[in-house]
Design a protein that fits this description.
The chain has 5 domains: 35 residues, no CATH class; 64 residues, no CATH class; 124 residues, Rossmann fold (3-Layer(aba) Sandwich), CATH 3.40.50; 107 residues, FAD/NAD(P)-binding domain; 127 residues, 3-Layer(bba) Sandwich (FAD/NAD(P)-binding domain), CATH 3.50.50. Helix 4 packs parallel to helix 8 and helix 12 runs parallel beside helix 13. It is α/β, with parallel strands linked by helices and 540 residues long. It is globular. The protein has a 4-stranded parallel β-sheet, with helices on both faces. It has a 4-stranded parallel β-sheet with strand order 10-9-8-14. It has a 4-stranded parallel β-sheet with strand order 17-16-15-21, covered by helices on one side. It is 28% helix and 22% strand. The protein has 13 helices and 21 strands. Strand 15, helix 12 and strand 16 form a beta-alpha-beta unit.
Amino acid sequence: MHTIDPKLDDDALILKYATETGEFIEEEFDLVVLSVGMEISPQVVQLAENIGLDLNEDNFCSTEPFHPVNASLDGIFVCGAFQGPKDIPQSIMEASAAACASSMTLSESRGTEIQTKIIPDEIDVAEMAPRIGVFVCNCGINIGGVVDVPAVAEYAKTLPNVVFTDENLFTCSQDTQEKIKKVIHENNINRVVVAACSPTTHEALFQDSLEESGLNKYLFEMANIRNQDSWVHRDDPEAATEKAKDLVRMAAARASLLEPLRAKTITVNKRALVIGGGVAGMTAALGVADQGFDVVLIEKNPQLGGLARELTETIEGADIQEHLSDLVARVEQHDRIQALTESLIVGFGGFKGNFTTEIMVGPGMYERKIDHGVTILATGADEYKPTEYLYGQDDGVMTQIELDKRLYERGADDLNRVIMIQCVGSRNEENPNCSRICCQSAIKNAIQIKEQNPETDVYVLYRDIRTYGLMERYYREARRLGVIFFRFEKEHPPLVEHGENGLTVRFKDHVLRGKSRRQPTSWPSAQACAHRKTKNWPPL
C-alpha cells in the first residue's frame, strides 16, 4: 500500500497502491482497519527494571531458547506477549509451561498451607415436600439489557413449589452467595434454581453454596437465560423475556423432582506415563518428576532424543546437542523416572486417574503392564521426505535438516550457488498446514552459508515468509547478508531439471514478470538443496 488520503467532499478514504503487475490502483473505502504489531508498554518496561529483569533490544523479556518461560531472575517466569509477539494458542501453551515451572519450584511446599473447608451435616430432605428458591440474575447488560428480569422473577413466584424468588445484579458474586445461604436457612428451602448464564462455568460455584448450607449439591438446577436466550435473541426483548420464563418454568419443574445423589470417591494413581522420548517427552517427564511424582517414559527407538538427534543449533545459535545430552542425562539419572527404550504399546485400558498400558519392551520384546493415573503424548513428528524436485533421484537435492548437518560437518567453503525451495509437501490439498518452522530453518541455514562463505550466492524461493515474532530480525539479517528472496505462486511452482551441466531451477520472477532460472553449483534445498561442481554457467 502506498498512501491513505481523505476524500475532500465526504468522509470516505482513498487508498492508493500498486499491484504486483505494476498497475497503480485507487480505491475508496468507508473504513480502513490497520493491522499493527505488538510492543511493550512503558509501564511494563518500568516494572521489569524495578525488579531487575533483563530485556532484549525490543524491550521484551529476555529468555534463553531452551528455557522460554524462565526470566533472568530465578523464580520469575514469563509467558505471553511480554516474552515476544505471539498469538493466543502459543500464549496459552507458555502459560501452562510457566505454571508447571512454578509448581516444580514449589513442589516441596505442596499441601502445607491447605485449609480444610468445614461442611455442615447434610439435611435429610427425603420426607420433605419440595420448597424451591429461584434466583434470577441480571448479569449487568448481558441478560438485563434484553430480558425483563423483574417480570421473570414475578412469573417465577407463580410456579408450583416455588416459595422464594429474587433478582440479583450478579448472582455469582460472593455477596450474593452469602445471601443465598441465608435465604436457604430462613425459608427452609430444599431445592435451588438459578437463572443466569452457563452451568459449564458456574454450576460448581452454586453447588458449593448448597453444600455449605447443608443441602446435597445435586438439589440444584440452572436455567441458562444468557447463552440460550438473551445472547441469541437480543433483537427481540419481548420474545426473549417469554423464553426466559419458559426456561425458568422447566428448571423449576425439574428441580421439584431432584433427589440427593452421592458422588463416588476413587483413588488416583500418582504415576504418569509419557509416550515419546524426544525433547518434548523428556521435558514433560522432568516437569512431572521434579514435582515429586513417579514417571515411566517409553520410547520406541533404542536411544532417547528423537528428531533432535539430527539437529545442530537453533537459529539463535544455541547448541541443540549439548541441551539434548543434558536432558538425557537428567532423565536417566532421575530417581523418579524410569525410561524404557525399544518399547511398543500393545494395549491400553482404564479410566481417568486409573489407566493400564501394556507394552512390549526391548529386543526380546517381553510384555509389561504399567498402571498410571495420567498419560502424556509426546510422540513428535518426522521430517517430510519429498517425492518432488528430484529428491532421492539426485544426490544433490537434500532437505533442510540434511543441509544443516552438511554445513556442520563440512562447512560452506566449497559452495558457489545454493537455492532453497520452500513449502515442499505442505500447504497443499494433501497437507494444508504450515509447520511454522520451515522458513526459519531456511533462513538459519542461509545465514550460516553467507557467514561461512560470503561469496556464495543464496536464493530462497518462497510462497510466504513466516518468520513470526522476533524471528523477523533473522529475515532482515539474511537480506543484509545478501540472501535473495523470490516469491512464487502455488499454481506456478518451480521446476527442477537435471541437465548436462547439473541441476537447473526454473521459476517465474514476480519482479521481472517473466521466467527466470538459477543453476546451483550446490544444492537446491527441497526443502530442496542440490550439490553440483560445475564451472561454465549460462548467463542468468
